[in-house]
Structure formats: C-alpha cells, structure tokens
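hi! just following up on the protien thing from before. the input was this:
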Amino acid sequence: MKTNLLDLTLEEFEKIVRPPFHARQVFTWVYEKRCLDFAKMTDLPARAARKLAEQYDIIPAKIVKAQSNVDPLRSDGAEKLLIELADGAKAETVLIYEEDRATVCLSTQIGCPMGCIFCASGSGGFERNLTSGEIMAEFLLAAQYLAGVSKKTITNIVLMGMGEPLANYDNTLRFIRAALAPWGLKMSARRITLSTLGLVKMIQRLAQEDLKINLAISLHAPNDSIRSRIVPRNEGVNRILDAAQRYFEKTGREVTFEYVLINGLNSEKEHAQELAKRLEGRQCNVNIIPLNPSDALPPDLKPPESAAVLEFQKTLRKLGVNATLRKSKGLKIQAACGQLRRQK
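and the predicted 3d structure came back as:
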C-alpha cells in the first residue's frame, strides 16, 4: 500500500528519501508549483520519479462532481466540489468568492458526530476522521480546479466544512502547520479560520499552540437551556465564553461567535438582549446566520422573517456588540452553512 505524501512533513520525508535533497525538490513541486505528478517534476531523474511513484501517492483523491453558483468573473457566489478519497469515502469542499477574495471551506471529517439540529452534515451519520493529508488534498484539488477555470488563487482557508475540527484535533493541527509552513502553503495565520462547536478543553489546548489563527465558535444561544436543545454536545455557555476569552488573551485574535437564527427558538429580541449581556466587556464579533434550509432537517425548523433578523442585529449593535450578517453564497447549490452532506 502506498503512503500518502501529503501526510508527511518535509522533515519526515527527508529522513526516508534518498538522496534527501529530492524531498525538498518534490515538496517545491507539490506545494509551490501545484504539480501532482512525479513524472512531471523535471528536475527529478526519471528513475527516481518512477521509484517515488511506486511508493507514494501525492493525492489519492479526485473531484467527482462540481456545482456552481457564480458570476462569470468569479467575484461572487460559490462552487461545491464533491471529493472522493482513496477508500471511496466522500467529502464536500466549497470555494467561496467575494470580489478579490477566494476562500476554500474544508471538511475535517466524513459526516459529523455532533448532532446539531440545524446541520445536515451529521444526517448520514459519522464515518471517520480525515487525515491531515486528505484535508490538504481538498485544498490542492480545489486550488487546481480554481486555476483551471479562472485566474484566481485561494486567499483564505476556513475549516468550516463537514465535521468538528477539534474532534479531529491532531490531524487538523497537522494540516494547519503544513498550511503555515515555509515548505508548505506559506499561508498567513490571519487568513486561516477554524470553526468549532465549542469543545472547551480543545479550545484551551489550541490557545497554547502559538498558531494565532482565527477562531470561530458556534454559540447559537444565549443560555444553556436553549443551547442544549440546538447543540446536544453543549459544554456550557459560560465555559465556552471563558475559553474564548482565554484564547483572545493568549493569541490576540478576536473570537467570532456564530449564531444560527432559528425561528421561535433563539431569534427573539429578548434572546439578543440576553446574548449582549453575556458578551458585555468581551472583545468579539457575532456572525448572524439565518437558518439555511435542507431536506435533511425537520420541517418545523425555519429561519425567522427578514425583519426579525435585522431586529436581532440592531438589538445587539445598540447594546454594544459588533454583529454582522453573513451573506449566503452557496444557498442554491446546498453549499451554505449547515447544508454540506456528501450529496451525489
């Protein structure tokens, strides 16, 4: 069985490749030139390229379907890619466009074990974690796809796709380090965002990693009574807010709290008022997301009317909370928040 090259760091590859300088040549081709074929690496001897191809898979994954909802210049909208991995498992990856920015939304698990009532990703159950190399494969396939259809390049990474990144902590962190590394994607930490349901111990651990990436926490409620109805794996609003504050103090990165508005459950003016009181004195941002529809969700779950959404935002702002409305780019192709579910 071949080894997935993307699961290795440069240091690890240098220890097993002979001569060792071939390792850096290969990594330059893969991460800088986005060449995913040993035979096309022209400064490698043909014999060495054949031997490496026998032992390693650069990218044991492929795009099997793409859905698009973009304008001709790819300055607005989204594209969803269904990626099939070596074992036949499938993950969805999304490219999101906004003016000069191209963001890739990566999955970290096949399915999701968290069971949030508004999210379709767990509707088919949880299958397995993705390896760091499989997460990187999502990025490289998306980058290759984008290069083939436009002159744009990926500028931002969000770990907001299928799954809970901090429930796959080691593989997620290994991917992030490769994304930041001089031998890897050379991304800025400011351009990487990890979204979590709010696993307190893992947030505390992440704060100690000295990565200084952006953190988004799916809060969705001002108190535990409501949050436990929305998020079965609720670890407590106060504990989550305290972990977020420690993350901010340790990294200097302002935390974003994601808040999906569900009509009649967490979307009333009093909920906004209670949330504002909870966040008083904290440097943070609330990202308001009206519930996105999916046929995998119970029919009684609906977004509030537009006027109620605006009133929720207005209430938060009036009480001193920085609150923004997330514009859905991929709603028509089931690529928006909570809609990813390995559809074929």
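The mean pLDDT is 92.
The two ends are 28 Å apart (CA to CA).
cheers
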